[in-house]
């Protein structure tokens, strides 16, 4: 991304080109003070953001994590008051176009918005990206960053004058400690079953290889773990047995959908274009077919659009990415697993995390065709794989394993 020329004046950076005389950046997390008149030195500053990664943000003001706590109200206002980072404090960084980013809350899938109808208060209640949900990522080159809201052209601030637990607002023309945030990525510690958290702490590469001895080389373990890390609550919810069962359940279902991770694309291909449903504005791109691809065999243009919108990838115009980019492919599987209720009443993730059982994951994925005695052989195929994988992970099967 392009570099902006900045000049240091005291403890601030002044932008010389591109944004008029707006003050941009903070040289330190010092208290809010006016810039001093000191010698000026020219520097360059990269505005690159960690697109596609899941991050936490910590306020310079009080060293607390930023949270989009849904319990604080229907709008889920952002506050800086958490001592630890979990679902509400984790945000996926999405490319919003034209050099801007959007932040999506891992726990809810909602986008952060600088709603001008609320005085530019930051809330996390939007399902799609518009100008209110676009931010410029500003690297202060000192381990902290700032966010400029497109809706106001101003910095997001944790203004101490509003109170210790007050919501964040995008209403500051200049940046100091109140507008500075440190950040880090979530889930980067996953390894081969011997360390870290999430999938990498449950499933080693050797066990994965033993589960799928004839798999297509496209479905790599590294891409699987990388994709899982962008969904921080996958395989991290509940006790160790619950987490192991969720991994076994996910792998058992995608084993069934892909013939043991052999197929990347559906055998009997068709256009699968239906514009009567799906996200607003989701049609079918000329010449593109939306047949089953990837570990969950993502099908139909509506699902490609919905998954692409969530993942920040244009799958409407590039559906083939699900069968050519291993990380995107795995992420579509996790998208369905973590966010969609399908033919059931709950997500597959919630079915395993809340103890509803493996049978409910089958209902969610293909219950209208398989459950209730409609296709017992297909159900049994999934159950057999689930039991086999539970045995390999050293965990009992739990209750309600059929549908």
Helical content stands at 25-40%
Biggest sheet record:
4 strands, antiparallel
Total beta strands: 16
Described by the principal axes of the CA atoms, the overall outline is globular
Number of helices: 10
What is the count of distinct domains? 2
- Could you give the order of strands across the largest sheet? 3-2-1-4
SSE string, helices as H and strands as E:
EEEEEEEEEEEEEEEEHHHHHHHHHH
CATH fold naming of the largest domain: Lysozyme
State the low-pLDDT regions, or none. 1-47, 187-196
CATH class of the largest domain: Mainly Alpha
Provide keyphrases for this structure.
403 residues; alpha+beta; Trefoil (Acidic Fibroblast Growth Factor, subunit A); Lysozyme; 2 domains; four-stranded antiparallel sheet; 16 strands; 20% strand
Secondary structure blueprint with pairings:
Blueprint: E1 3-9, E2 12-15, E3 23-26, E4 41-46, E5 54-59, E6 65-67, E7 79-82, E8 91-97, E9 100-105, E10 111-115, E11 121-126, E12 135-139, E13 145-149, E14 155-157, E15 169-172, E16 181-185, H1 199-202, H2 205-211, H3 221-228, H4 240-258, H5 301-311, H6 321-324, H7 326-339, H8 348-353, H9 358-370, H10 376-393
Antiparallel strand pairs: 1-2, 1-4, 2-3, 5-8, 5-16, 6-7, 8-9, 10-11, 12-13, 14-15
Helix pairs in contact: 3-7, 4-9, 4-10, 5-7, 9-10
Short summary of the structure?
The chain has helices spanning 199-202, 205-211, 221-228, 240-258, 301-311, 321-324, 326-339, 348-353, 358-370, 376-393; strands at 3-9, 12-15, 23-26, 41-46, 54-59, 65-67, 79-82, 91-97, 100-105, 111-115, 121-126, 135-139, 145-149, 155-157, 169-172, 181-185. It is of the alpha+beta class and 403 residues long. It is globular and about 65 Å long.
